[in-house]
């Protein structure tokens, strides 16, 4: 979800630059249209990532319960900020 949001933000920032260049006649208007398509696609990816997060939280709630035994939906605040470092690959001796 964070990656999809970052990619959307990049496309939106690029849209502002393309819009200025298009207004100045430096860039063809088709480039602006193509970037608008990219923005729509990236918005769709953010929605899809949100849905996947919600579906995963629902699946997790089968096992994650409160003290009364009621299911708990884990929200984005409970996600790790970054992925853990991978374990080093074992050395191969010949």
Biggest pleated-sheet summary = none
Order of helices and strands: HH
Number of strands: 0
Unreliable residue runs? none
Helix content: 55-70%
Distance between the termini: 43 Å
Question: Kindly state the mean pLDDT as a whole number?
Answer: 90
Strand content: under 5%
The coarse silhouette is flat
What Rg, in angstroms, do the CA atoms define? Answer: 21 Å
Q: Helix count?
A: 2
Structural class per helix/strand content?
mainly alpha
What does this structure look like?
This protein is an all-alpha fold and 94 residues long. Helices cover 57% and strands 0% of the residues. The protein is built from 2 helices and no strands. It has helices spanning 2-23, 29-60. Helix 1 (2-23) packs antiparallel against helix 2. The longest helix is centred in the middle third of the chain and has 32 residues, at 29-60. It is flat, with a radius of gyration of 21 Å. The mean pLDDT is 90.
Structure summarized in a few sentences:
By secondary structure, the chain is mainly α.
Topology:
Elements: H1 2-23, H2 29-60
Question: What key attributes describe this structure?
Answer:
94 residues, mainly alpha, 0% strand, flat
